[in-house]
Amino acid sequence: MIKLFLSPAGRMGRRNFWIGVVGFVLFVALMQFILRTMGPTLAQFFLSLIYIVLVFLILYSVYGKRLHDLGRSFWPLTGMITLTILIVMGVMLAFGGAEYFTEFAQYDRKEDIDPAEIERIKSIYQAKLANAGQVMEPLIYFIWTAFTLWLGLAKPQNDANKYGPVISG
After folding, report:
1. Residue 151 pLDDT exceeds 80
2. Residue 134, class by beta-carbon neighbours within 10 Å (0-12 exposed, 13-18 middle, 19+ buried)?
3. Predicted pLDDT at 132
């Protein structure tokens, strides 16, 4: 299991890829539950940092090895991660993020801002951002589902490639 989830080297067959995807989804769900129940503490902050590192390591281990089995490098996966980040940033800016930063930009850095004004700006932005999730989440889920299906259903290279020998499964 450690090699499956924590080692990006080599190749991975379809069966092991699907096992890895299910394990990854369970890991993410469990960690989200733990982080939400912990509340905003210092321990939660450090655990979330470890969680982010593990998410990327598992992604590159599971998805990357499957890409290697198809004779491809990590670049499609890196492109998917970049696309996800760009979608999140674009949707957040489109749904009030730009206005949020503009509202605060009118104040000098050293100027004290009235707490009621801060709360007014935050409440407006949070209401708009709630609508962004309705656009962003289905789009991101669709893109990652399509990418996962492509990797999980694609036929592997039937001979050794620069990433390793042919594997079964």
Report:
1. yes
2. exposed
3. 80
For 18-43, the pLDDT digits (tens) are 999 999 999 999 999 999 999 889 99
Spell out the residues 6+ positions from residue 30 whose beta carbon is closer than 8 angstroms to its own: none
Q: What are phi and psi of 161, to 5 degrees?
A: -130, -175
User: SS3 breakdown of the chain: % helix, strand, coil, rounded to 5?
Assistant: 75, 0, 25
pLDDT digits (tens, 9 = 90+) for 50-70: 999 999 999 999 999 999 999
Rounded CA separation 34/47 (Å): 9
Q: What are phi and psi of 164, to 5 degrees?
A: 145, 180
- Helix axes of 42-69 and 75-92: crossing angle, nearest 10 degrees: 140
* 3 token code pair: 């090699």
First-to-last alpha carbon distance for the chain, in angstroms, is 15
